[in-house]
Amino acid sequence: MKPQEFKTTRAVVIERPYEARLREIRLTKPRNDAYVAQTTFSSISSGTDMKTYKGMQHPEQCWYPLVPGYETAGKIVAVGDETDGRLNIGDRVMINECRQYGDVCAAWGGNSEFTVKDSFTAPSGFDYMVKIPDNVTDIQAVLAYLACVPLKGIKRMTLRPNETFVVIGAGMVGISAIQILKVSEPTLKVVCIERNAFRRSIAKKYADLVVTPDNAVEVISDYTNGKMADQLIECSGNPEVVGTLHKYIKDGGWGDDDIPAHIHLQGDYPDKIILDHYHRWFVKNATITMTCALAPGCKEQILQWISERKFDTDGLPIEIWGVSQCTEAFKYKCEKGEDVFKIVFDWSK
After folding, report:
1. Both 79 and 163 in a single domain?
2. Is residue 12 domain-shared with residue 87, that is, in the same domain?
3. Which of 275, 290, 305 is the endpoint of a domain?
4. Counting beta carbons within 10 angstroms of the beta carbon of residue 141, is it exposed (0 to 12), middle (13 to 18) or buried (19 or more)?
């Protein structure tokens, strides 16, 4: 088939807050540079998608009805006459974002069975599809996407041997950040702070030390002989946490050769971030940066690490649901919250 023959598709649609279902939608008319991909597996993002499901996104970002998601893998089924030539029919690919559909909002738009990827629907510099290595499964490629998000952020930081690095949150972004730090600088001592017991059990497979917020300050102080963390990446998405991060980082940074602590904000924050009283921050003299989404080259890097067995997805407790159960899956995830790590949709069921 030619790309122009694809006019409709099944998709997971959030009709309004707390109401998701599988139904048919219209696709945009493919341009001559279009690839069309068929999804085999996709996922619910515990952060962005669940905030969308609950109606917590700002209206300038998306509106209802909408297609959520961006964690998708599948295969190329049609190629336009003016593509870039990187991909061929039958190639397995990370599909990811679609920015436009014909009759619904594309809230990042990953959860459709067929996806048109061209200069109109995928215009951003990181929207392109990436071929999946032969020894990487489609499900691993789905899980690779969110690892790209902290990879972009960590590239903004300088990783120095033997430093202590704190990661806040043990969701997919936080667990990925821990692994990326260890791959990038194996001598780092990585501490994970996580409030949920189930997620702490996952983090213990990857971090050097896992603590609760209740005793994190005391434990990190003991662990570092009073110095506290050199750097920190915040991956929980909880805006109330951000204002208190000064508690976990070292003092200093006053002299030209005195390296300040570095805090990087990586979460998707639905509400305002309010900092603690300034005198608690002033003595830290810290560098604060932030990023979201991903950068060109991140998908290729994470897939390579998975292929080389440097990045582990086998230790992640995913639940596979048939996409026909998407209504129930969103309700289940909403009820269980952080006690469900990741739901993956099988589009054959």
Report:
1. no
2. yes
3. 290
4. buried
| Beta carbons of 220 and 191 less than 8 angstroms apart | yes
168 three-class SS: strand
Instruction: Tell me if 303 is assigned to some domain.
Output: no
111 occurs within a structural domain? yes
Does residue 120 form part of some domain?
yes
Q: Does the pLDDT at position 267 exceed 80? A: no
Q: How many CA atoms, within 13 angstroms, populate the side-chain half-sphere of residue 39?
A: 32
**How many domains does the chain contain in total?**
2
Please give the pLDDT value at position 110. Answer: 86
Q: Which domain holds residue 321?
A: 3-146+313-346
In 3D, which of 161, 202, 201 has the Cα closest to residue 182?
161
Half-sphere exposure of 313 (CA within 13 A, CB side): 23
Q: Helices (DSSP H) in the chain: which residue ranges?
A: 48-53, 138-154, 172-184, 197-203, 216-223, 239-242, 278-282, 298-307, 326-336
What whole-number distance in Å separates Cα of residue 148 and Cα of residue 255? 34
CA distance 272 to 155: 26
Start-to-end CA distance of the chain, whole Å, equals 24
Looking at residue 205, which CATH number applies to its domain? 3.40.50.720
Can you give the pLDDT at residue 106? 93
- Judge if 182 and 225 occupy the same domain: yes
CA distances from 119 to 93, 95, 122, 224, 264 (A): 18, 14, 6, 50, 32
Inside any domain, residue 83? yes
Q: What is the mean pLDDT of residues 62-81?
A: 96
Please report which confidence band the pLDDT of residue 66 belongs to, taking 50, 70 and 90 as the band edges. Answer: very high
Instruction: Give the CATH number of the domain where residue 34 resides.
Output: 3.90.180.10
**pTM of full prediction above 0.85:** yes
Q: Are 235 and 266 in contact (CB under 8 A)?
A: yes
pLDDT digits (tens, 9 = 90+) for 161-174: 999 999 999 999 99
DSSP state at residue 315? T
CB 245 within 8 A of CB 167: no
Would you state the structure tokens that stand for residue 172, as one six-digit string? 């997919």
